[in-house]
Each structure stands twice: as structure tokens, then as C-alpha cells.
Amino acid sequence: MKRLDKIYEKAKRLTIDDKTKLVIMSDCHRGAGNNEDNFGKNQNIYDSALQYYFDEGFTYIELGDGDEMWEVKKYNDIIEEHIDSFKKIKKFHEQGRFIMLYGNHDMAKKSQNILKKYFYEYDDKVTNKKEALLMNLEAIEALVLGYKGHDIFLLHGHQVDFLNNNLWPVARFLVRHVWSKLELIGIKDPTSAAKNYMVTSKVEKTLQNWSKDNNKIIIVGHTHRPVFPNIKESLYFNDGSCVHPNGITAIEIKEGKITLVKWGLDVLEEQIIVKRFVLDGSENIEDFFLD
Ligand SMILES: [Mn+2]
Questions:
Q1: What tens-digit pLDDT sequence spans the chain (291 residues)?
Q2: Which of 9, 82, 134, 166 has the fewest beta carbons under 10 Å from its own?
Q3: 200 and 223 in contact (C-beta within 8 Å)?
């Protein structure tokens, strides 16, 4: 609890109003294109969604674990493999419409040197030159959105997950050297919040209690389990992930309303199309606060 208070106090603040359009996604775990790269199969869906949000004037908030920097050690490989997605993100970034938060799997982004080395520019395979990508990118730990006198607290969520926060080098070692190998033969990582029900419910409960005690909406990722609460029952939201078996989930904020959506495939006559489905909402943001 104290940890969350501290992160909240230090968080970057942004005031929003009914004209603000935000889309929040997390846990893309963009990898190096090998068997362990769970993002690969959803990349086209993700790119279509980003194109829609760009055209519609949204700001894209990436809520941590955008890149899989535990399993992949050569960060260049991530950018090269998913350059099409990064070029979409670049369009938001160039217009000041991109905010990146880091999670446990991309905590390396805390270092401005890492961001500069791998994300500011990329090696263009066609021109054989370094081209601008996410120039002067910063990655933050938390963001507070002020809306009509209320606060919406955004962070990845690993901060209340002991192994994944305090002992993150140990967790990274296990992911790099032990669990990723066992995963290939079907054994799931027992320390992963995304795959373990016990860890998930404990993390969720801590975050839920904090949001209720402080009467602030909290929006996180990390567990990969999308959550849209009932009005006046809870203020805990989770945007899910971009590595679901058949699509990605996101939280939209638009015209003072909040919506949980899924982007997936659908069939239209003989064509396979990418489609936006509403999973929950829209609800007025103001209705969730307890007073
Ligand atoms: Mn995470």
C-alpha cells in the first residue's frame, strides 16, 4: 500500500476533459519473432487497431510490458521484427500522442541510455541507414489523469507483485533461463502473474483495495486478465493484453466515458476482417467514484 502511495505521489499528471480521447493497451510483449514471441500472431490486429486510433485522433498510452526484454536480450531484434508496429507508434509519437509506461518485462526502459540506443533510431534495411524512430522517447512508471476533480491512476501493476518487483533480476533470470525452456514443452511459469491464478488474485486484491480506500480509479495491465468493474462496487480496471489467443484488448476513454474493447478477426462474406468489439461499457467515468 505504501509503495502505491509513493508511486502515486511521484506520478506524472495530466488533466483531461470530455474532448480527450485515450486508448490504453499493455502487455504486447513484442518479441524477436521466434516461438516464444506471442505478439507475432496478433501483430496485424494490433496494427489495424493502432491505425484506427490514429485516424480517430486518440492518444496511445502503452501501460507497460510493451516489449519482451526478459526473453530477448538483443533488443534490436524486437524492433527489427516488429518494425511495422513501431512505425505506427512513431506516427503517434511525432504528434505528441504517445505515452509509454514501463512494466516488469521492459523495466530496462528506465535507462535513458537504453531508450536512446535502441528506440530513438532504427537500422532501415532498405536505405541501409539509421532512420528516426521514437526520438527522445521517455518511459515513465505511472501517470495520473485528472478528470473533473477526480483522479485516474495508471501504472503497469507489477509494483505490488513481490517477485516481479523487488526480485525482478531473479524473475528475469528464471524467465530467460528456466521457464522459457520449460514453456516450449508445455510447463507454465508459476511465478508469472499472467499465468498463475493465485498471484493474479493477490495482485488484483491489493490494487482494488488501494483504489477503493483512495476513491481513485486505477487502471493496470500485468495480469493479462481484462477487468471492467460494476459501478460503485470497484474502481479497479485492467486492460488485458495484446497476446490473447485470438486478439487484443484495450480500454478507451472518450467523451467522459470508459469502454473495454477487444480487437479480433471476423468473417464478412468471404473476407476475413479485423473488427472492434465492445466487451463492456461505455459507462460515465464519474459514476464509478464513491462520492
Ligand atoms: Mn507485467
A1: 589 999 999 999 999 999 999 999 999 999 999 878 889 999 999 999 999 999 999 999 999 999 999 888 899 999 999 999 999 999 999 999 999 999 999 999 999 999 999 999 999 988 899 999 999 999 999 999 999 999 999 999 999 876 666 666 666 666 666 666 666 666 566 556 666 656 668 888 999 999 999 999 999 999 999 999 999 999 999 999 999 988 999 999 999 999 999 999 999 989 999 999 999 999 999 999 997
A2: 9
A3: yes
Residues 151 and 218: their CA atoms lie apart, in Å, by: 9
* Ligand 1 centroid distance, CA of 284 (Å): 28
151/13 Cα distance (integer angstroms): 9
Cα 175 to averaged position of ligand 1 atoms, centre (Å) = 12
Residue 267 CA to ligand 1 centre (angstroms): 32
Domains of the chain: 2-288 (3.60.21.10)
Name residues whose C-beta falls within 8 Å of residue 19's C-beta, 6 or more positions apart in sequence: 255
Cα–ligand 1 centroid distance for 143 (angstroms)? 16
- Find the 261 Cα to ligand 1 centroid distance in Å: 20
C-alpha distance across the termini of the chain, in Å: 22
The pTM assigned to this predicted structure is: 0.90
Q: How far is the CA of 159 from the centre of ligand 1 (A)?
A: 9
Q: Which residues pair with 265 in a beta bridge?
A: 274
